Amino acid sequence: MAACRAPPGGTAPDSSSEAPDCQTRINRLKYILSKKRKTPLSARGHWSTWPAFASGQTVPRSPKPCHAPEERPPGNKQVLRTIPKPRYLERLESYLRKELQSLDLTKKNSQELKLQPYREIFEFFIDNFKTYKPLLSAIKNEYEVTLAHQKTTIRALEPLKAMITTMSEECTQKILALQEKERDEINMLKQEKQHLLKFIDNMKEEKSSLQVQVERLRTSVAEEYARYLNEYGARKMLLAKLNDMYNERLDRTRHQVQDVKGEDAVKLTLALKIARQDLTKAQVKLNAMIADYGDVVPRRDFESLEKKYSDLLQEMKTLQRDFDQLHKEYETLQEIHRETAEERDNFRAELQQAQRNRTPRPNWAKCSEVIPGGAARWGCLAEGKTSDQLVDVLLEEIGTGVLKEINVFPGWGKGDTVPVYLRHDGEVKNKKLTKKDVVNILKDVWKEKIALEQQTGKRSSLPEFFLGYLQKKYGDAAAMEWSYTLYENMRLCRSNHVLSSFYDVLTGKVGEEQYHGQNQLVSNLQKELAACDSSNSGSLTREQFSAAVREAFPLKRKESIQELVDASRYRLDSTEDLIDYVSLFKEDEEGNAEPFVAKLRSQYVRERREYLRELRSKLGDLTEVKADDLKTAFCTIDPDIDDQTLDTYVGLAYQVRREQPDQDVVPTETALERLLAGDVRRAGPSPGERSTTSLEEEQADFQD
Question: Which of 45, 105, 262, 426 has the fewest CB atoms within 10 Å of its CB?
Answer without folding.
Answer: 45
